[in-house]
C-alpha cells in the first residue's frame, strides 16, 4: 500500500494510534479504563476516540471466527483479466460470507476469505466464479488450522504491562448454545461492538441488567471476539503482504506458533495446497518486509516463500475500506455475486 493514498485529514498521531491499539486488545474497553492504562485523561481519550469513530476511521466489530465455518474456512486466490479486478473484488466484498477481500499488486489477482455453508460455497466456486468471463483461474485453499487471525493482531505500540491490564479474562469454558436473544445481541455487536449497554437494551427492548448478564456470559464463552478495524496505513504500516510458505510438515506447528507472536503478523494459517502455511504481515516499508523475510523467516527454516503484496484492502472483518474510512457492507452500493 502507498501511504500517499490515505486521507491526510484522518492521519493518526501517536496517541490516536495507542488508543486504537488499546481497542485491538479489548474492543469494548471503557474510555476511563483506556485512559488509566495509557496515562492520559478520560476526557482526552473520549474526545479522540469519538472523533475517530465519527469519521469512520476506526470501527470495532465482532470478529468472525474461521473455526465457526459450517464446512471450514477457505482462502481464495482469483486470477482476473486486467481491468476487471475491481469488479470481481467488490462483488466478493458484497457477500456476507466473505469478511476479507484484497486486490493484489499488479491488478490481476484478488484474495479473499470465505466462511460459508456447503451450498453457498459450491454455488460460488462451481457456478458464479466460473460463469464470470472476467475470472481466469481460481485457487482454493482450505484453512486447516488457525494459529492467529486478525483479531489477535496488536500494533507494537503498548508495553506488555499495558496489554496485560487491558486484556479481558480468557474464556471460562466452552460457550453455551446462544438462544434467540443472544443471537440478536451478537447481530447488533457485529455492526458496532462498542454500543453501550443502554443502547443495546433499547434496541432489544429488554432491561439493561439482562444485556449486562448476557454479555458477561457470552464473553465467558469466548463469543465476544472484537476487532478494531483500521486502515493499517493510518497506523504507519504502508506495506501489507501475504506470504505463502512451504514448511517441512514436522515443523509446521512450531513455525506457525513462532510467527503468530510476531508483532508484524496479522494472520497465520495452515492451509491445503502447494503452500502449507500463509502468513499475513504489516510492515512500515519494503525494507522492513525484507528484514522480516531474512531475519524472521530465514532462521525458522522456511523452504520457500512466495511474497504477494496487497495493493488495496477492499474489505476487512466485514467492513469495506474507502480512502482510509470504513463502511458496513450494507452501506456500500456495489455490484455483487449473491449467495
Provide an overview of this structure:
With 339 residues, the chain is α+β, with helices and mostly antiparallel strands. The protein has a domain at 66-148 and 237-327: 2-Layer Sandwich (Alpha-Beta Plaits). The protein contains eleven helices and twelve strands. The chain has helices at residues 14-25, 31-38, 42-54, 85-93, 118-131, 160-166, 180-191, 197-204, 208-220, 252-260, 286-297; strands spanning 58-62, 74-80, 100-104, 109-114, 135-148, 226-230, 239-246, 265-271, 277-283, 304-316, 319-322, 325-328. The strands form two sheets. It has an eight-stranded antiparallel barrel with strand order 2-4-3-10-7-9-8-5, surrounded by four helices. Strands 1-6 form a two-stranded antiparallel sheet. Helix 2 crosses helix 3. The longest helix is centred in the middle third of the chain and has 14 residues, at 118-131.
Multimeric status of the protein = single chain
CATH class value of one domain: Alpha Beta
Strand neighbour order, sheet with most strands: 2-4-3-10-7-9-8-5
> What is the third-level CATH name, the topology of one domain?
Alpha-Beta Plaits
> How many beta-strand segments?
12
Q: State the low-pLDDT regions, or none.
A: 1-6, 331-339
- Portion of residues in helices? 25-40%
Average residue pLDDT: 89
Helical stretch count? 11
Please give the alpha-carbon distance between the first and last residues. 30 Å
Secondary structure class reads alpha+beta
Q: What amount of the residues lies in strands?
A: 25-35%
Q: Given the C-alpha coordinates, what overall shape results?
A: globular
Secondary-structure element string:
HHHEEHEEHEHHHHEEHEEHEEE
Tell me what the CATH architecture of one domain is.
2-Layer Sandwich
Instruction: Determine Rg (CA atoms, Å).
Output: 20 Å
Characterize the biggest β-sheet.
8 strands, antiparallel, barrel
InterPro entries: AsnC-type_HTH_dom (IPR000485), Dimeric_a/b-barrel (IPR011008), Tscrpt_reg_AsnC-like (IPR019888), Tscrpt_reg_AsnC/Lrp_C (IPR019887), WH-like_DNA-bd_sf (IPR036388), WH_DNA-bd_sf (IPR036390)
GO molecular function, one term: DNA binding
Keywords: DNA-binding, Transcription, Transcription regulation
Protein name: DNA-binding Lrp family transcriptional regulator
Amino acid at each position: 500500500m502507498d501511504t500517499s493514498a490515505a486521507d491526510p485529514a484522518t492521519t493518526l498521531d501517536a496517541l490516536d494510534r495507542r488508543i486504537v491499539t488499546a481497542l485491538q486488545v479489548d474492543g469494548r474497553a471503557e474510555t476511563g479504563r483506556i485512559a488509566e492504562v495509557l496515562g492520559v485523561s478520560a476526557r482526552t481519550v473520549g474526545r479522540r476516540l469519538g472523533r475517530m469513530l465519527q469519521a469512520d476511521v476506526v470501527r470495532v466489530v465482532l470478529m468472525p471466527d474461521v473455526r465457526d465455518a459450517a464446512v471450514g474456512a477457505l482462502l481464495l486466490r482469483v486470477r482476473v483479466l486486467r481491468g476487471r479486478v475491481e469488479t470481481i473484488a467488490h462483488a466478493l466484498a458484497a457477500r456476507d460470507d466473505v469478511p476479507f477481500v484484497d486486490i493484489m499488486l499488479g491488478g490481476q489477482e484478488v484474495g479473499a476469505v470465505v466462511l460459508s455453508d456447503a451450498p453457498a460455497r459450491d454455488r460460488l466456486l462451481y457456478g458464479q466464479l466460473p460463469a464470470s468471463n472476467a475470472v481466469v483461474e481460481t485457487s482454493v485453499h482450505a484453512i486447516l488450522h488457525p494459529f492467529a487471525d486478525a483479531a489477535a493482531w496488536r500494533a507494537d505500540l503498548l508495553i506488555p504491562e499495558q496489554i496485560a491490564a487491558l486484556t479481558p479474562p480468557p474464556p471460562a469454558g466452552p460457550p453455551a448454545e446462544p438462544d434467540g436473544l443472544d443471537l440478536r445481541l451478537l447481530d447488533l455487536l457485529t455492526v458496532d461492538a462498542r454500543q453501550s449497554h443502554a443502547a443495546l437494551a433499547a434496541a432489544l427492548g429488554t432491561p439493561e441488567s439482562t444485556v449486562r448478564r448476557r454479555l458477561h456470559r457470552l464473553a465467558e464463552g469466548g463469543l465476544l471476539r472484537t476487532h478494531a478495524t483500521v486502515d493499517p496505513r493510518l497506523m504507519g504500516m504502508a506495506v501489507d503482504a501475504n506470504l505463502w510458505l512451504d514448511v517441512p510438515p514436522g515443523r509446521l506447528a512450531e513455525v506457525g506458533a513462532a510467527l503468530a507472536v510476531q508483532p508484524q503478523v496479522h494472520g497465520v494459517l495452515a492451509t491445503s495446497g502447494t503452500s502449507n502455511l500463509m502468513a499475513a504481515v504489516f510492515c512500515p516499508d519494503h525494507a522492513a518486509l525484507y528484514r522480516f523475510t531474512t531475519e524472521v523467516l530465514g532462521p525458522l527454516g522456511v523452504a520457500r516463500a512466495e511474497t504477494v503484496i496487497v495493493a488495496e484492502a477492499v474489505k476487512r472483518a466485514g467492513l469495506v475500506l474507502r480512502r482510509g474510512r470504513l463502511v458496513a457492507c450494507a452501506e456500500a452500493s456495489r455490484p455483487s455475486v449473491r449467495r
